[in-house]
Amino acid sequence: MINNILELIKKGSEKEKSGNLEEALDIYILTLQKWDHICKYQDDERVKNVLLSRMEQLVSRAENIKNVIKNKGKDFGSNSHHSSDSLSCQDKDNDNLKYQNDPLYDTIRSCILQESPNVNWDDIIGLDKAKSSLKEAVIIPVKFPELFKGNLKPWKGILLYGPPGTGKTFLAKACATEMRGTFLSISSADLTSKWQGESEKLIKALFDIAREKAPSVIFIDEIDSLCSSRSEQENDATRRIKTEFLVQMDGINVSCNSNNNSLKPVLVLGTTNIPWDIDSGIRRRFERRIYIPLPDEESRVLLIKNGLKFIEHELSNDDILYIANKTDGYSSSDVSVLIKDALFEPIRKCSNSNWFKKVVVYSKDKSENHSNNQKMYWTPCPQPSDIDNYDKNVYRNTSIYEIQNNQLLPPKLTREDIIGVLSRTKSSVSNQDIHKFNEWTNKFGLSGE
């Protein structure tokens, strides 16, 4: 098998030297697929690492040839940036005509976000480093493209990883809201097909459209399901998908400004809950790998206060601090679910009560006519002490379902309500998971706190 691969590389090199770049590219792609198959069954880690290193070199070589073909015969390795820009723009126009009615490209175009998610950076509690990195990668290159010249180029790939429910997708929504460009929101299901060869075409279509619509962000949620580590159970289709993804990510920055050669960036933004399952080649393409950890106590306090906005409650700041302390190890999503569950407690009191008391509530709008700014409600209460002689105009022995619409007044949320919910709520993240994330961060990532 290795001799066969070496022969293919030699044949591809000959085609490349003779100027048959399309044939050379086809041969190199076939070689990469066979090479990937060998790596999968290679037990010797030293040999495997050498093979993977050579494989990545061949991926870069194939990408260079692909760019030469796209630039219509531009000299290999030339530094003539201005001619490259004009050819790139011409190719983009030709691509628009060529793929105008292609159903695969239509599928990808349907993933372009048309409406803003309306999530601002200030809506995200904590995660200052993660927000700063995303602004650096997404907002600044779009707003100040003239700054990125020479060796200073925008980031091409950012991976957000961490336990479920810590705000990774929320950060992506903030990017979509704040950036002035194209945002393509993709899942692995959008890029996989039962038809052979179609998944690779979908990936190519994705990056073609991202270049066409640049500046743009390709957001891939749960990217591990698309680019997992090599294994013996892996089929040829999965290997081809990874190979195409590697080739596309190696050349995702485009430029169509012949005056100052400023880049129109394309950023791949991926999220995952299991970063250790991502293929090592794909991991290397994500130049920034940012850990999104569980919220600290200060962030949990803010999350609780945010969840209690516009809610009638009796909790003091000390009560909120106590609850934040008790939710150590909870994700942001866990805290939100806890508060949501607690907000149902006043309604549950109404539902479980058989007695209701009439109360009069005055509105905050102070008007001259006192009768216009007061309203009558029924609120749950204990059974009257004198059951045989209670005021039937004040008390009602009934159920919640017999009270008229807009006349039910649930009691205020109390500290005891939330503590009761806490007793039956657990964190969705284990200590073993956190230890695993910390180990991976020490090897490959950086903290986003």
Automatic annotation (TrEMBL):
Cited SMART domains: AAA (SM00382)
Assigned GO CC terms: membrane
Coiled coil start-end: none
AAA+ ATPase domain span: 154-296
Region listing for Disordered, in residue ranges: 73-92
Location of this chain's protein in the cell: Membrane
Alphabetic keyword roster: ATP-binding, Nucleotide-binding
Keyword field contains Nucleotide-binding: yes
Molecular function via GO: ATP binding; ATP hydrolysis activity
UniProt entry tagged with the keyword Transport: no
A Pfam entry, by short name: AAA
GO BP field: endosomal transport; vacuole organization
Protein name: AAA-family ATPase
Species whose genome carries this gene: Cryptosporidium xiaoi
